[in-house]
Amino acid sequence: MNNSQLAFFQGQQNKTYVLPRLKQLPIQEHPTSRVAQDSDACSLAELLAVIIGGSTQIEIADRLLAQFNTIQKIAQAHANEISSIPGITNLTALRLKAALALGRKLLQPEDERPAIHSPLDAAQILMPMLAHREQEYLIVMTLDTRNRMLDVSEIYHGSLNSSMVRVGELFKPALQRNAAGILVAHNHPSGDPTPSPEDITVTRAIVQAGKLLDVSVLDHMVIGLSKWSSLKEKNLGF
Hints:
Elements: H1 3-14, H2 21-24, H3 31-38, H4 44-52, H5 57-68, H6 71-76, H7 79-83, H8 90-106, H9 119-130, E1 136-143, E2 149-158, H10 167-177, E3 181-187, H11 197-213, E4 216-223, E5 228-230
Parallel strand pairs: 3-4
Antiparallel strand pairs: 1-2, 1-3, 4-5
Helix pairs in contact: 3-4, 4-5, 10-11
């Protein structure tokens, strides 16, 4: 063995192997055990660790929180951003996104087909979907003859303006579901739900198209961070 080989061998011997933190904990202190005992008492890091899984789940959960700081920012992040964290695969990133989406659905009304009798009824469904988004999302809620929700479809997302919105696209979900009406909504990432002049222009075009297609346009709502606006209520574009 020459000097360089000997030096490498001695260096390898001197390395200290650190056990993953999961293996250093008693079984009852593992995140999975903690969740089984009382999930409400678990820290955010513990809950994330259970979803991540694996022997280094605690370290990876810590990295995730160090990168994004809050659960809200993790929810806003794209799956590709999450999977850029060392130790998080694409599949794990999708599991995290799915778990957070389930949490948002938990905030929605229990009735599988809630009826929309007022802008407030719609806002209770739309706020958990749109309020936290960093990009602008345009969605269509399809409704039956009793204004009960059939489905919610995402039409566009990104930086939107009136020239990008094809009014015909908004009515595709209604025609596919044979819906009696639609409710259009989009968010303002700024958090201010005040309708813009473009919002009013688009609303006017949507209402006119609805009359031609015999599909009622119940409302166009703008969702902010903690507030919302109804263009129908404000008589803007209707």
